[in-house]
Amino acid sequence: MSDELDDFINDLQGELNTRAIKDYGQAGFERWKNPPHNHPIKNPDGYASVTGSCGDTMEIFLKFKGDKVKDASFQTNGCGPSIICGSLAAELAFGKNPEELTEITNNAIINIIGGRIPEEDMHCASLAAETLQEALSQYMKNKQRSK
Ligand code: FES
Q: What pLDDT digit, counting tens, does each position of 50-87 carry?
């Protein structure tokens, strides 16, 4: 009985993996299984938590050195695509100044994985981009206040 259950679970996992590779490509799949930058940052200079219309929440943390991002990360309680896109958004932020950060859009995010994301998951990339822009906005407001 236990062997049958194990076989069933292994088959199911294999089907899910095959489907994910088909939908998001090998690069997207690898990122989903082991997403870099998936942790909070203490005392971030810029931070935002945004809940999308799907009900999932994305958090982005930014730490600056001078006018460039020296550390960036994300957390989400969302779907697989939101994990991929949050991780990519954080990665894109590294080394960028505020003006360059504004260029990180949903399309910029999915272009890294070859534009491979099903149409129905585009809102997950939009949530990551929106949260990053909100974290930047918070950083700029904090910077203005401290002048
Ligand atoms: Fe909510 Fe993907 S379904 S972020």
A: 999 999 999 999 999 999 999 999 999 999 999 999 99
Which residue from 88, 95, 92, 114 is spatially nearest to 31, judged by alpha carbons? 88
Helix (H) or strand (E) holding 50: strand 46-51
> Domain count of the chain?
1
- Give the residue, out of 79, 85, 122, with the most ligand 1 atoms within 8 A of its beta carbon, to mutate for a pocket test: 79
Distance in Å, CA 79 to ligand 1 centroid: 5
Q: Which domain holds residue 96?
A: 2-145
Supply the CATH number for residue 35's domain: 3.90.1010.10
* Closest to 116 in 3D by CA, of 80, 63, 69: 80
pLDDT bracket for residue 1 (50, 70, 90): low
**pLDDT for 127-142, tens place per residue?**
999 999 999 999 999 9
